[in-house]
Amino acid sequence: MHALIVLSHPGPTSLSHAVAGRVGEGILQRGSGNTFEIADLMAEGFDPRFSAGDFAAHHREAVSPVDVVVEQARIEQADALVLVFPVYWWAMPGLLKGWIDRVFANGWAYDDSGEKVIKKLGHLPVHLVGIGGADAGTYERHGYFGAMKTQIDHGIFDYCGAPVVTSELLLESDGEDQTANLEAAEAIGRKIFTEQK
């Protein structure tokens, strides 16, 4: 089994990078045949801008741009998709949102060409690992846990039919000791393919 871990953070020594690595370690612990790839969107220079080419592809007037097709192929090779991202302004970073905007395209992730939307990613389990600086009380007080599920779990992945298996926030990321968050990340990785079998 193979997981694609998509990471969006500009700092290579960030907690987000460490969390992505620990999710990968957890995946490897659950079976000798398990593999993972980390797609570091910043390091790879992915362009998140929804271009005229993306717009034309959305309307079925052209094929998707080459960089989008490459990302779609990476997802097609995966048995699970994991998104690791810091929470910026109560949302995912623009780079990751742009990746989703471009890659989860009409005709590939869903088909909106008729009267009914056809969800095309029912075979792709998704695991969301957000990293936030505030404590759980702050997120709860402001309704962020529900907002994340509405905006990301339902608004993006349910629209495409991709089941969200994990939707976690690792919090208090500004603290000095991140042992608990790193252990939680590894535990998430260990569960990814266990829950699919």
Q: What features would you describe in this structure?
A:
The strands form 2 sheets. Strands 2-1-3-6-7 form a 5-stranded parallel β-sheet, with helices on both faces. It has a two-stranded antiparallel sheet with strand order 4-5. It has one domain: Rossmann fold, CATH 3.40.50. The chain is α/β, with parallel strands linked by helices. The model has no long low-confidence stretch (mean pLDDT 94). α1 packs across α8. It starts with a strand and ends in a 5-residue tail after the last helix. A hairpin with a 6-residue loop joins β4 and β5. The protein contains 8 helices and 7 strands; from the N terminus they run βαβαααβαβββααβα.
Number of helices: 8
pLDDT averaged over residues: 94
Largest sheet: 5 strands, parallel
Report how far apart the termini are: 10 Å
Write a concise synopsis of the structure shown.
The protein has 8 helices and 7 strands. The chain has helices at residues 15-29, 41-44, 52-58, 66-76, 94-103, 136-141, 144-160, 179-192; strands at 2-7, 35-40, 80-86, 110-111, 118-119, 126-131, 164-170. It has a 5-stranded parallel sheet, sandwiched between helices.
Helices and strands in order, then pairings?
Blueprint: E1 2-7, H1 15-29, E2 35-40, H2 41-44, H3 52-58, H4 66-76, E3 80-86, H5 94-103, E4 110-111, E5 118-119, E6 126-131, H6 136-141, H7 144-160, E7 164-170, H8 179-192
Helix pairs in contact: 1-8
